[in-house]
Write a structure and sequence with these properties.
By secondary structure, this protein is of the alpha/beta class. It is built from 32 helices and 20 strands. A 6-stranded mixed sheet has the order 4-3-2-1-5-6. It has a 5-stranded parallel sheet with strand order 10-13-14-9-15, sandwiched between helices. Helix 5 runs parallel beside helix 7, helix 13 packs antiparallel against helix 14 and helix 14 packs antiparallel against helix 15. The radius of gyration is 34 Å and the shape is globular. The relative contact order is 0.08.
Length: 806
């Protein structure tokens, strides 16, 4: 809400009135002709009625700021009565219309000696036109209103320090996030995406189409995907896939990320629930359907389910619920068999999807998600969810392609799928060439076998050129049916984005930034750079954190300002001393109740620094993303050997830039080993493997790994398993783990929450730098994490680093 600052002088009615707008400009000054003594030479003499009418016109729909508002309200009320005017109702409610700097200052700066305008302006070092408050000029409406305006701005800045920086969260990591969105930017490009989606829907064959979204780092490619999600998630299923990291399991990686997207909630239900519900509705409404009463009953219950009545189809573990969901599964299966072949995995996958939807218990849903990913469950888990275990011999790549195909074909009854591939930049690096080539083949297979899908690739311009030179032209033709180029927005658009973001702290750009600040911010490209610069300036202006490049160093404090700062410090110390003495007095009658060391600490002076150093972007990223990973730790996640070894390989390749070592693999004839890499450093061999499987696969592979340990006594071996995976309960499996731990050079490691989060955090940090989502270089970031205990992972030891403090 816009505001004005007013000051009234007079007793009992107004003699002077001054009004300042939100930019600090005097927009009104008037003197009452009924009290012109001392005002004979001024020009703005008006009748009391005119003054009040002008006041109402100017302050309409604006918040009114006064110092000691109660006094101004009393004068206004008496003046309205004197002028024969009705005092407006909205002015009677002080909290709604008025804001008082006297009250605000008491909240913001407690325990001051006084809260008069003069005292506060001097205490807070407030100036107007380089002049301090002069008591000889006080009690003139114009003068007091100007200083009240500066006081209000000072209080607002102090309060802003308690709020998050509105520009700091500018990076969109996934389309499922929610950030402020200025819809006028990339409006035409957004319409292209919607047109492509609509064309798929209108095509009787539901043929999939491709879009390449091309933009420099930070231009807002993922942000545009978020806009698409915000508009389409109520009708379409959106599947978000980050880059694959293992050449042998690209399709499985894609399907795993698709599953994780499907269990993302939209409204009250996960996307997978919405898909199955809509498919059943469409089948029931088909022209040749003989609608039964059970169809009608279930349709009604499904609407209740969407309204968050989780027991709409029956209570958990009841025959009613089981029967209803079985009926839904049977209905979908009949439609499938009338339109498609049973295939190898199609019907079981449909069964598993419906089974997932039938559960409300988080644990059952998690197990079913793992089953849908093709992972072998323990016998107890398979029995618990009532699904047959997969054969350990199935090809995960073949399984994944058929599963994605099932989703595409089912969606032909719903709305087109939106499949987004993001963070693909590292595929262009030489060491990822095999992954890139297999990714191209995977995309080709998806276009061939998966209908009714809009497939979007977000790419840098140079990476798109590289892909065109490597990919088969048939692939290029499919994925680039639409090409969307994200230009650099105009300064006007960027300024509008800044204005949208700063609304969160209820202040304008001009009240925070100087014209020079804004000029520097708006000169930055792309959008993210401008937002990052705005975040820097915001911290500089509000929190006194210096700018990262020291382009505009914080000025030296003037002598009188230093004195003011020292006085504030002494006043705080005085308050501390009083508090300590009170504690001593209260505790004097009780033995052993006073912690002398603690009291000494409280009395120890800590003078304020003149400035604060700027925030390291690596630290900021690590802290924010660490918190995000903690929040998501217990979400349904597809954990696999291939994904984890891909992450480890990416981390190792990155560290190879600052600490040279070789990466290889061991073999034991034709035996199947856990996914692993061998790190050779200074004649030492450190082996790290992952084993997330269950049953016979686990016991066979850990047995083969144990043989490696025996064959290479000079090497150190670590076999990692995520703690969220099922416990190994079989006698043989437990014995193999015991053998590994009892060996001199082997360890079975349960990746706990701390290990996992830090591992994923370092991987995401590296990927963010490769994708230019983080404004720092790889060497700086990796040097930081290897030299700070908080971010140091024990895996770094295997690369030849030494843990800080050791």
């Amino acid at each position: 809400m816009d505001f004005v600052v007013i000051d009234t002088e007079g007793n009992p009615t107004i003699t002077e009135l001054a009004i300042i707008d939100s930019q600090g400009t005097v927009i009104y000054e008037g003197f009452c002709d009924g009290s012109i003594h001392g005002f004979e030479n001024v020009l703005n003499i008006k009748s009391l009625k005119t003054l009040l009418t002008d006041f109402l016109t100017i302050t309409e729909n604006k918040k009114i700021i006064c110092h000691y508002a109660e006094h101004d309200l009393e004068i206004l009320q008496r003046s309205f009565q004197q002028a024969g005017l009705t005092f407006p109702d909205n002015l009677k409610f002080k909290k709604n219309k008025f804001e008082c700097t006297w009250m605000l200052a008491k909240d913001c700066f407690p325990n001051l000696e006084s809260y008069s305008l003069e005292y506060l302006c001097k205490y807070l070092n407030i100036k107007n036109n380089q002049q301090y408050f002069n008591p000889n000029m006080a009690h003139h409406a114009r003068y007091d209103a100007i200083f009240t305006y500066h006081l209000y701005q000072k209080i607002r800045l102090e309060n802003l320090q308690k709020k998050p920086n509105p520009f700091s969260s500018s990076r969109v990591d996934t389309p499922f996030q929610h950030h402020l969105d200025y819809a006028n930017t990339y409006h035409r490009e957004f319409q292209t995406l919607k047109t492509a989606l609509n064309n798929i829907k209108l095509d009787p064959n539901h043929q999939s189409k491709g879009v390449v979204v091309i933009g420099e780092p930070g231009t807002g490619k993922t942000h545009l995907m978020m806009r698409l999600a915000n508009e389409k998630l109520t009708s379409n299923r959106l599947l978000f896939i980050r880059q694959p990291n293992d050449a042998k399991s690209v399709l499985y990686h894609i399907y795993g990320r698709i599953l994780e997207s499907l269990v993302e909630k939209v409204g009250n239900l996960p996307q997978l629930d919405a898909l199955i519900i809509n498919i059943f509705r469409k089948i029931v409404s088909l022209p040749d359907r003989d609608v039964k009463q059970k169809d009608i009953d279930i349709l009604k219950s499904l609407y209740d389910l969407e309204d968050n009545n989780l027991n709409a189809l029956g209570k958990e573990n009841t025959q009613t619920k089981l029967s209803n969901w079985k009926y839904i599964e049977k209905t979908i299966n009949e439609w499938w068999l009338n339109n498609y072949s049973a295939g190898t995995f199609a019907l079981p996958i449909i069964q598993g999807m419906v089974k997932y939807c039938s559960y409300t218990d988080y644990r059952y849903r998690n197990i079913t998600t793992r089953w849908l990913s093709g992972n072998t469950l323990t016998d107890e888990e398979a029995e618990m969810i009532g699904l047959p275990n997969w054969s350990e011999e199935i090809s995960k790549e073949t399984f994944s392609l058929e599963a994605i195909s099932v989703l595409g074909k089912l969606s032909s009854l719903d709305e087109p799928l939106i499949i987004i591939f993001d963070q693909l930049e590292t595929l262009g690096y030489p060491h990822n060439r095999d992954i890139l080539l297999n990714f191209a083949e995977a995309i080709k297979e998806i276009f061939t076998h998966v209908p009714n899908s809009l497939i979007i690739l977000n790419l840098f311009p140079d990476r798109w050129e590289q892909f065109q030179s490597i990919f088969d032209q048939s692939i290029i033709g499919r994925i680039s049916q639409y090409q969307v180029y994200l230009r650099q927005p105009t300064e006007t658009e960027v300024k509008s984005i800044l204005q949208l973001k700063i609304q969160a702290v209820d202040i304008s750009l001009e009240q925070i930034f100087s014209p020079e600040d804004l000029e520097d911010i708006l000169s930055k490209t792309p959008i993210r750079a401008a937002l990052n610069r705005a975040a820097n300036y915001y911290d500089y202006r509000v929190n006194k954190i210096s700018l990262p490049d020291e382009r505009k160093p914080i000025r030296e404090l003037e002598p009188n300002e230093k004195i003011e700062q020292q006085l504030k410090f002494l006043q705080q110390q005085q308050q501390n001393i009083i508090q300590v003495l009170n504690k001593l007095i209260q505790a004097s009658s009780l033995a052993d109740t006073v912690d002398i060391n603690n009291l000494q600490e409280e009395l120890t002076p800590h003078p304020p620094d003149d400035t604060k150093i700027f925030i390291n972007p690596v630290i900021e990223y690590l802290k924010e993303h660490h918190h995000e990973l903690e929040q998501k730790y217990h979400n349904a996640t597809i954990i696999s050997d291939s994904d984890d070894i891909g992450k480890l390989r990416t981390i190792a390749e990155a560290f190879n830039h600052i600490h040279s070592f070789k990466l290889t693999q061991f073999r034991v004839g034709k035996r199947v080993l856990p996914e692993h890499i061998v790190i050779e450093t200074s004649q030492k061999y450190n082996v790290i493997g992952f084993l997330e499987t269950n049953g016979t696969s686990f016991t066979t592979r850990i047995g083969n790994f144990n043989q490696l340990v025996v064959n290479h006594p000079e090497s150190k071996f670590y076999l990692i398993r995520d703690e969220r995976q099922p416990d190994i309960t079989g006698a043989v499996g437990k014995e193999r783990i015991k053998q590994l731990n009892n060996s001199k050079n082997g360890n079975f490691v349960l990746f706990n929450q701390k290990d996992r989060i830090l591992f994923d955090l370092i991987y995401d940090l590296i990927i963010s730098i490769y994708n230019k989502d983080l404004d720092t270089d790889l060497e700086t970031a990796l040097t930081f994490v290897t030299t700070h205990q908080e971010w140091y992972h024990w895996i770094f030891n295997q690369f030849g680093f030494t843990q800080p403090g050791n």
